[in-house]
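Attaching the record inline, Q. Sequence:
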Amino acid sequence: MCPVHEEDYNKEIEIEKSITQFIFPFSFKKERRKHLMERLKEEHYTHFSLKDQNLETQFYGPHHHVSHFDLDQYFLPYIEQILFPSAHESDGFHRFSKPLQCTGILETRNDPISFEILSIDIFICPYHIGMINIRVQQTKEKMVLTDTLDFMNHFRVLEPKLAEQKGSKVCVDDQVYEKVQELIFYHLCPFLVSFVDEREVEDAAYFGSLPYFVDERMYVIGYISVKDFESINDVHLYRVGNVNGYDERGRIHVAATNPSYIEKINKKQVYDRWAPHTYYVTSDHVFCCLTHEKDDQEEVLASGMLGQHYYNLLLHFYYKVVLLKLSYEHSLLRFQKDEDEIEGLISSISVFSAKYLFSEISSRTEGQEFAEKFKEVFHIDSIYMEVKETLLSLYQNQEKLIDKRHNYLLFIMTIYTVISGIYGMNLVIDDWKGSIHWHRMLHYSFFEYISLLIAISGIFIGLGMGIAAVIKLLTRWMKGNQFM
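Structure, as predicted:
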């Protein structure tokens, strides 16, 4: 990276190829997880498996493939079990993919951009989180960087809110959609509507929105191949990180004018290990590769963005979503009443920390360095510290509730003990031996009535406590697979 100059702000670069992936997280109904998997099969989605090498070329367009061997070698064994589960019953990320090859046009205030939807991935993840990934390749001739960024900026918007976002249309297979969410739920995968969990969101910003993940824009993974004679400068990298396309007047949009600020942001967002030929940009909005490389090396880079780096990003993106989900569920607790919910949330946080959240995910240097970038961008460590503090708070509240319950139990036991002591530890009436003479109860004395009341209430309280304990054990057993 070089110092920013005045002429860099208006410099355009031509590109040869642009492949983008748009990730949309949603929550599905936990009781319908198996039905969702069955429905995906009915819709001709393929369950992804590393063992099936025929899948290496099915979902990435005619000129690209993803090596399953490279995927297998990239991640550590315990991460592989999460990302590539073999059986549907196993915990982990169950990926269902389908090639589509739908052609379309994105119409904005500027020139329309033609594209092809290569395929779609639907991930069924633990904690009832799902993720949709739409894999798109722009097919417009003579594209420049701003065209690609403008396409990313408009296509990722699910529900237009701002003035600059409105006015765009997506035309796919002779159907026109004013919102990308309509394209997803009306055209690409309408069957998902009945599985999306909307119970938590009363005033949803858009269909499928998560109450703890408020953003009407999808996350973008991009691969951009730049022509040989073009040079990549700091302004280009900054614009990629902020997905700056055209402004309202159709000019190059740069969201900053201070060169020092641009350089400072790029130091955080840009991974320049292979500069000046290849740069990776990671931000809150996008993870993108810009490269001059051609031929075999270009294929290696594209395969990495569609394979290893894609899964690396996806895992950390999932970390952020689940951590926010756990924090949100903590905010909804009523500590005086929701004892079972407190125990469930404690279990959720503990299982997630032990089973899914790992600091080391790859044995390769670039994999480790990308993981650190993703952690920094998604604020994984800071959110996790908040969740750990939440766990401590939950333990403290649980202890208070347990103490309170024990005090009530001790109070009841004390009453029965005192009364039994008054009766000399003998509450038995001769009429209760053998065949019970119920009519004689009409002639009981006051103290015999007390004895009868204590005996019957003690029996019912004992049975109630026993039944409640059994129900609680059964409930915990039935919730044993709630995180899958």
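The first helix runs from residue 33 to 42. Residues 321-395 form one domain.

More tomorrow.
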